[in-house]
Structure formats: structure tokens, C-alpha cells
Amino acid sequence: MELTSWLFRAGDRKFFMRKKPFIIAIIITLFFSTPFSAAAQTAINLDAAIQNTAQDIERRLPQGASIVLVNFDSASAALSDYIIEELTVGLMDSGNLVVIDHNTLNRVLVDMEINLQFSGYVSDETMVSLGRLMGANYALSGSLSGSGDSFRFEAFLTEVRTQRRQSLGARNIQSNERLIALMNQRGRPEPEIPVNPLTADEFYQRGFAYMDRGEYARAIADFTELLRFDNNRNISQDYRIFTAIYMRGLANSNLGNHEEAIADYSRSVDVIGESAAAFTARSIQYSLIRDFDRAMMDINRVMELTPNLPTPYILRCSIYTRKGEYDKALEDALYAVWLDPEHANGHRVLSIAYLAKGELEKAEESYRIAIHLAPNDRENRELMELIVDFYIERAIASSNRGNHNAALADYNRAIGIDPNSAGAYANRGIAYFNLGELNRAVEDMERAVNLASGNTHMTVRNLLAALYIERAIASGSRGNHNAALMDSSRAIALDPNRAGAYANRGMAYFNLGELDRAVADLERAVTLAPDNAQVRSSFDRVRHMRDLEAAWGN
What we know:
With about 550 residues, the protein is α/β, with parallel strands linked by helices. It has helices at about 20-30, 45-60, 75-95, 100-110, 125-135, 175-185, 200-215, 215-230, 240-255, 260-270, 275-290, 290-305, 310-325, 325-340, 345-355, 360-375, 380-400, 405-415, 420-435, 440-450, 455-475, 480-495, 500-510, 515-530, 535-554; strands at about 65-75, 100, 140-145, 150-160, 165-175. The termini are far apart.
């Protein structure tokens, strides 16, 4: 997916400016132009370039400004990570800036289901959106290009408020062993996890590790310990504080501690300012406790900050759905998919919005797009079951109106979506029975028995036993008593306490001339259904005939 595919595009535009006085042009040129020519400078090593860039940023930005490190494109992930980590350390060392590192940004993007590939050029729109997402005043990106002995290091700084991008200068980089080793390294090494953390950094690292493992209670403990380290400091100057509070909120939300999560997300807003990520996370928690008014206030603020992201529209769609405002939910879902046609969750919420409107075929279409985009997402299974249930419910309604063919069509659609749906096969079996297609009914019910489990399995077994009896009766009426015998035995195997199965097998034995077995089965049927006059009459008649035959034989 293109890096900017999820951004709201207005098409190619040209901007015209009236000529300004020459002196203003000189001032602007002096402030925003590259400070020196890459072609004329002496090559320096990579670490020096990183240090110079960090110092240049510190000189340019006002004290207390916040900056998010978005990406640094290079020949390998390891090299990009190294540059970003060293820039982070260099910017933090000054103590004058709030630095939001790339790991924190990645964590937020995953949490908000925003799909970006940080390779190649990152557009101005994307830089501004990510800055607003994190509540940052500035966003930093860059690249290291070249090969052999010639490399070019260039960084760009985007001011979020004005959306103005400026180059921090291109620097010639000399090759050395470290640079070559980083370029050739494939993959990212696993970070070492502190066993007995003593410093804020160590608690920070271990807290992240616990989050990755799903050990949320331990992550909360480590992030809480980190915050204690900074009780007596100006916490707004340390990106770890925002991250620790935000991640503790995420851990609390995963544990179902919604009130605690809301408190953490609120505090993260106090620390970093207007962060779309924190507003989004808090909106989700408000929605889960059904405080829809506050949830809507937060998500609307996110839309103001990041109008081109699909995620807030997806979340607002969910809020509208929970409130029963299905037309508004559908409108937001359609807009989210328009913003990013490749956003799987956008198509999932669109599918749910269509379901809420009763438009099952459109819901199925959106579902199929979602599984094509993200075939391994566990949410697909939940959505699949939901759509199948809707088809089954509509089919049952059709059957209740006597429209068994319409019901059959919906069961076919349900099975086409989920070939392992026991409910769809069982109900289609009933539809076939109502249409007089007994063999197809039995085949579907047998399949349902093999697929079902738990209480459903017992219900389907009973239904199949009933169908076996129906087919046994039909076979017997056609004179096919061996088939009737086999189906009656199958029914008994499924339900040993079903009187009808024994009665029908008894009559099959009778018609095959096996009177002793017939009497035994009919006697069992009378025991199971003592009030059934027809069964007792058949038993008395067959027993009498057996006794007469025995007497004649003597």
C-alpha cells in the first residue's frame, strides 16, 4: 500500500503567492534553506552526522517543544533503527525537548490499526497527521542513501501547525565498518530484557517486553515504578512519561479496567497535550462503559486533529452502531473505506453497518473484502459467524412464512461463507425436509452432527434421529423394510430412549418375518411411551400373532 493511500487527497493543486518585498524573501531563504552544500562539505562519519543533526534541531526548536521521530529510510531496518535511536538519545540529552520515539509511534499505530510502511519518502500530509496523532509540535524524517564509499544523510523537520517542511541539510557520510555492518544486518535483534531493573530506562524496557508478552499486570507494575522515578522532575520533558502512562492505560484496558484506563489516557493528554492517540484510546474506553456522549466528544476531537485518518470514522461508526443510529454508522463506515480502501477493519465495520440495516448481501461483500485484505485477522471469524447467523435468522423467518425455497437460498449463502457451520447445515436439512427432499435433509443433518459440539451437538443428534425415523417410515411405506430397519437402528444409536425408533424398527422386523425381534422392540417402545395407544396396539397385535404362530408350530 502506498504510504499516503489512507490520506484525504484533494488532487494536484498549484499554489500562487504574490511577490513579497525582496528583503522578506532573503530572510525566509536564510532561515529555511539548507545551511550548507552537501557537495562542498567534507565527509564525516555517521555518528557525527547524527550528533550534528540533533544539535541543529535543538537550536531551531523552542524549549519545551515536542517532536516525534517518524522514520529514517535506509538500506536496512537495523541501520534505520540505529539512526533513530541515536537521534532520540541526542535530542533527549539536551533536556529541552519532549521526544516521542519511533517505538512509541509504532505502538500507537498498531493500537489504532493504522497501516503504514515507513520506507521511502513520507509525504507532508502523513508527517502532519502523525504529528497530530502523537500531540507533537514537530515531526522528523530522513534518509541515508548511497553505496560503496559515498553516502548522503539528510533529515527533514515538519512543523505540524503550519504544515511547513524544511530540510536540515544534506551531509556527506564516509563509509566505515559500523556503517557497513549495519547495512548488511538483516532483521532486528531482540532487545535484552532487564532482569532486575534499577533505572527508569530499565523499567521502561521491561514494561514494553511484558506488554509484548501479554503480561499486562506486570507491565502496569513496571510503568508505575517508572513514573515514581520522575515524581520530582518536570515530567513533560521525558517522552518515557507519556509512553508509560499511555501504555499503562492500554494494559488496563486489556484487563478490562476501564476506569483506570480512562484515568491514564486523561493524564497522558495532560502530559503531552492534544494527542489524537490519547483521545482515541479514551474514546474507546468511554464507549465500552456506554458513556457515549464523552466517547463522541473525544472522537470528534480526533477528527479535527487528523481528518484524513480512517480510524476515527471507524470508531465513531461503532459508537453510532451501539447507540442504534444505523444510518450515521453506515455513513461513517463508507467514508472510512473511501479514505483507505485497503483498511480491513474499515470493511469489517462497513459489513456490520450493513447488517444493522438488514442488507445482508452488501454485508457479505464487505466481509469478503476484509478477509482478502487481512485473511489471518481473528476478527474475521467473529464477523463471519455474525453474518452466518443473520442469514440463518432470515432463512428461518422465510420458513415460518412457508417460503422454504427462499430459506434454502439463504442457508446456501451461509454455508458458502462458513462451510463448517453446523447450524446452517442443520437448518438447511429442515428446509429440505419441508420441501420433501428427505435424503438431502438426512445428508445435511449428518454433516451437522459431525460439525456440532456441546449443546448444539445434542440438539442436532435429536433432529437427525427424527429424520432417520421419518425416512424409515417412508421406506417402510414403499415396502423397503431393510432400509427402514437400518434407519430405525441409526435413530436408536443416536437416541436410545426414542420410542418411535423402537416402534418403527419393531414393525420393520415384523414385515421381515422376525417376530421375536419385533416383539422385543415394540415392548421397549411401550416401556418408553406407555401412554401411546398406537404403539401399545401394535405391540399387542404383533405379540398375539407371534404367540399364534408359536402355537401353530407346536
